[in-house]
Structure formats: structure tokens, C-alpha cells
Amino acid sequence: MQRKLLLLITALSLTATAQEVTEVPDSIDDIQLSVELSDLEVVAQRQLVKTEIDRISYDVQADSESKTKTAMDMLRKVPLVSVDGEENIRVKGGTAFKIYKNGHPDPGISQNPKEVLKAIPASMIKRIEVITEPGAKYDAEGVTAILNIVMKDASGMSGATGTVSAGIDIYGSPNANTYVTAQHGKLVTSLNYGMMHRGHNANKQIQDMTQIYTLSGDTLHTMSGGDASVNVHYGNLEASYEADTLNLITASVGGFYYNYGGFSDALTTMTAAGGEPIYRFGQHLNTEGNHYYNINGRLDYQHRTQRKNEVITASYMLSSTLNKTNQETQYTDGWNSPMPYDFMKQKGNERFWEHTWQLDWTRPIALGHKIETGLKYIYRSNTSHTTMNYASGNATLDELDSRFKHLTQVGAAYLSYTYTHDKWTARAGLRYEWSYLKASYPDGSQESFHRTLNDWVPSASLNYQIDFARSLKWAFSTSINRPGISYLNPAVIEGPTSIHYGNAHLGSARNYSTSITYMQIGPKFTFNVAPNFSWSNNEITGVRWREDGKDIDTYQNTLTRRHVGLNGFFQWQIAAKTSMMFNGDIGHDYYHSDALGLTNKGYWASFFYTQVTQQLPWKLRLTAHGGKWGGGAEDLYSHEGHAWFYGFSLQRSFLKEDRLTINISAQRPFSPKYSSYNQYTTQGDYTGRGHYEFMQRSFNLRISYRFGSLNARVKKTDKTIENDDVVGGSSAGEGQGNQGGGQGSQGGY
Description:
By secondary structure, the chain is an all-beta fold. The protein is 3% helix and 64% strand. The strands form 4 sheets. It has a 31-stranded mixed beta sheet that branches. The chain has a 6-stranded mixed beta sheet with strand order 3-4-9-10-7-8. It has a two-stranded antiparallel sheet with strand order 1-2. The longest helix is centred in the N-terminal third of the chain and has 7 residues. The radius of gyration is 27 Å and the shape is globular.
């Protein structure tokens, strides 16, 4: 006898928004379904995307591929985020964003996101948030968006828990990570450590660059090839102590270290407009012995009052970094060489200290009304020491010793108001920032100077919840950029054909942006579309020109920029065992400088990443992905070409509760070992093309094992410190700021 199952559905929620649903919509009636139990198969998938008034989040743990993929792999799936073939990250089509971990800046990730995000297993990540409208409570400087990586908190388990994972690729580059959480009474702690090594065989590059000088017609051609190795180590210890339901103390200390070194060989030739040779020289570049260190700590105290949802938080954060660079260049096979030396040695030492104190207060003032306010003070010190030595044979020809110190103090206050009523949520905020900047030269090369800045930063957003599946949001934001030490450092780095130096007189830049976002979340099909527009009138940009036979580059506040773009995302459950996702954007940048008399426009940048996942017999999961990036204007002078990528992976879990997972993957398996793209310079004192080839074909094996369980989590305070205000230098909040301008490398690698 067949049994029947009666399903009574009295409420249905297809979306997870920040706004509470207090009643069942009129369009949903009680439904009774009578089906044969023998024919019933329940197929469900947790929604991966969630939208709120200020952010979009991607549920990494709901993605089955998180067991063996890395954080970088997951980023390709996050709406409004793009990762190109060189693993450069863009958010909302641009680079003016910051990277956080657990709601606060993480210097370890920010300073070298490519390597660190490839070293962090996705199994450690709970969700990835794109904070599209940071609002008044975040620092005004440097952000049009924040990429926040929220780590797993191990809630819902019992005992002790941990994960250990390891991987290796065909080039012999290993990576490993462990994460452990434990509880003792009211104290909860978590510890993670990870490492990654990429050897010389995995980092080979080839460059072919041609520059044609506008006035003389001379052509400079450089052909180079090289490789490098990178070692990454990172760790973090977090703890929380909940004395009672009203008081919580959290603390963390972490560090990040990497060293890198490599070799490259190059041949540079200069020919006249008629083809006659002018000079030629070869060079061998050695970059062994470069190190970067970061140590950071944070302490938060949170107090909840007797009033529901009223929270007071006091925070302190310390961050310190040390960046040591060391490179030697030997010049050989010279003919009519443009420089009198045959050896150059460059050493750099950049130190950074930052202390931050912050006080935040959140208080509901009536039903549907909430205010957030706070105060913040930052003391930031940057110092640099650069030496250059030029020699011919055993004779020293010239020496440079440059010392620079830059002090920044920032005082800020903010007020934000949020109103929620029925289907509407509105937020408006205003932030005031006072900043004091002082530059000094311990070597006495220049006179010290200081500057005081005052900035008012408004923001606003409005969200309409059309129904429980659809929402429409408008947002406006303002941000500012202060230059970091690498943009400010006046040390002159001179090579045979180029000169680079920073500009100690740079000021802050102001940026504005507005966007409209439509989101629809359904049981089988979810999509998002977001047109956006941003503009700036005094942005920091790289500038370059030709003088006395050399290419010179530095930075100025001279850029007018306009960007219009469209971001799109969809997730489609095609069948019970087949799913597809798409993430992409298209945008147009307009660059103009009155001071330089240059305009760069007419180029459209585009990116897309698509993936199809198929469940196979024997618990196998097959995934195929592909995508494209490039095409847009890069700065006042250049635009980039297009590049394509694709790959496959096969995954299976074993043992009880699928604790052991094995994944094998291939990137561009049917293509040449090297992937390539072009960069075109179309105006300025010289034009030309750069052709770049880098290794992208690879085969990888990764194994992950989960052990134990724990019914506890490291608590996080509702507010903590976020410093996100610096481009071109060390900062606890620095991510991928304005990347205009070159760094004056002398060819080669």
C-alpha cells in the first residue's frame, strides 16, 4: 500500500534581507500538496547570495566547492567582484576598494592579496561581503567599496574542531593550512596558520616592450624573461570572553610574512627613426633577499545596555609593517651604452606604525529608527630609507642616500541615521575628518612642511523591498584618498633609461559615486543587475614624460575621471544535479588632465566568469569554468587588450560526514603553457606596445580533512576599527588603491 504525504505550506521566504518580514504577503495562500511518497524527491540548495541596504554577501559555506577551493577561487563567484587572468581584483569595476577580514582591516591580506588569498582555504571562510555603500561609520579615505572576508566561527558544533588542508601543483608548489577552535568555560579561542610556496618554475614571465618616441621617432625595444619564488606565512590568534550577556571582550594578534626573489635577463636596444642603431646593452637583474613583515593586534570591549539593540564599543588597534627591498643589476654586452656604470645596487627600507582608538555607539530611538555615532583618532608614522650605488668595475661612481619621514594624524566623527518602515529602508550619514600631515627629511635634502585638511563626507542610500523576492536600491557615497608613503617618497630611483620618484606634495583626492541595484532571489534563479556611475576631479595619477634621453614618471593630483558601468550576476539551478552561475561587468572610463592636455577615452573594459557544475554518480562533482577580462583604459596614456581563461575540476568526499575531500583541477589544460595579453600606450611623449606572457596552465591536487566539533564561536563585537584611507603606501587598511603610474623598474623582471 502506498503512503501519501501531506505538505502544508503556510509561509514562504525566498530571500534573506536585513529587513524583517512581519507578515505573510497577501499573494501567498495556504497550499496543500498531496503526492506519492515513493515519487517524492526533495532537492534544495541554500541561497548563495544575500542583499542588505549596504552590502551583498556570498555564502561560501553553502557552496560545496568551498571544501577544497581557495579564497581566490571563491572571489570569482561573488557579485560585483572580478578577478582577471593575472589575479588582479576589482570591485564594482574599479580598484578603489579595501580588503577586510571579520569586519576590520587585515594588513596581511591587504599588502599582498594575490598570494595570501590563494593560500587561504575557502573551507575556513563563512561568507564574503561586498560592502557597496560603506556609509559614514567607515573612514572616508580610499574606498568606494569594501571586500570583507568573514571567517568561520564554528558555531553549532560540540567539543573541539579543526580543519587541515594541503595542496600541490604540477610545478611542485605546495600550500598548507590548519585552523583550530577550542572553548574553556566562557573563553573561546581560535588559531590558524598557513603557508604557501611558489617556486621559480611556477612564476616564469616573458615581456616584449616597444616604445616609439613622438618627437624623435626613435624606438626603444626591450625583450626580457625571468622567474621568481615566493614564500608566504601567515597566522592569527583570536579570543573572546563573554563575562555575561551584556559584556564581551575580544582580542586578536596576527602576523604575515613573505619573502620573494628572482632573476631576469633583458636586452635593450635603441634605434633611430631610420633604423640606425643608437645603443644596446644587456642586463641581469637579481631580486633575491626581499622581505615583508606585518604584525597587528586588536582589542575590543562591547557593552550592551538594558535597552534592546543599544551597543557601546571601545576599540584599539596596532599595526606595524617593515618592507625591505634589495636588487642588483649587472649591465653587460654594451654598445655605445647610455650610462657610465655597469653595476647598480638598490636597497629600500620602509617602516610603518599605526595606532588607532575608536568609540562607537548604536542606539534605536523608536520603532524603525536607529542612530549610529562615533569618534576616531589615528596616529600613523611612515619612514623610508633608500640607497642607490652605481659602479664601474671596482670603482664607485655615485651614491644616493635618501631618508624621508611622513606623519599623519586623523581625527574623525560620524553620525548615521537609519529609518525602516514597511518595505522601505533609508540611511543617511555625515562624516567629518580633520587630518594633519607632516613631511620631514632627516638627511636635510629638503625643508620640512606640513598641511592641515578638513573634509565633510556625506552618504545616503534607499532600499525598497518590492516583495520578499525582489528589492531595488539606490545609493550615493563620497570618499577621499590620501597618498601613502610609496606615492610620497621623494627618493630618485634612476636606471639607464628611466627615472622614478614620488611627490611629497600630493594632496587628498575626492571621489563620488552613485548606483542603482536590482536584486531578485528565487528558488531556482537568482540575479542581480547594478548600473553605476562615479567621478573625481583631482585624483592622484601617474604622470610621465621624456627628458634628457630618459623616461621620467611620478604622481600628481591632476586627473579628472568618469566611470560608467554595469555589473550583473545570476545563479541558475538548471536541474536537480546541474547548476550554472555567471558574474560579469562592463564599463567605460574617461580620463582627462587639463594640466597635461591629455584625454583617454573610447575603450570599454569587460569581464565575465561563468561556471557549470554537474553532480555525477559515485558522489563525484564536475565543474567547468571560463571567462574573459581586459579592454579598458588604464590611465591617461594606455589601454589593455583582452585575455581568456578556462578550467575544470573534479571533486569527491569520503569518510563519515564527508570529512575527507579530494579535488583535482586543471587550468587551461588544452592551451599553451603561457597565457598572454597586450598593453597599448597611445599618447604622451612616447607610444608603443607591451606584450606580456605568464604561466597559467597548471594541474593541482588538494586534500582537506575536517576533525572534531565545537559548540562555541569566537565572538565578534558589533563594531570594530576599520582603517581604509591610504593609497600608494603601507596602511592597516590598504587594499588595492589607485594603481596609476610606474615604479621605475629598470626593465627585465
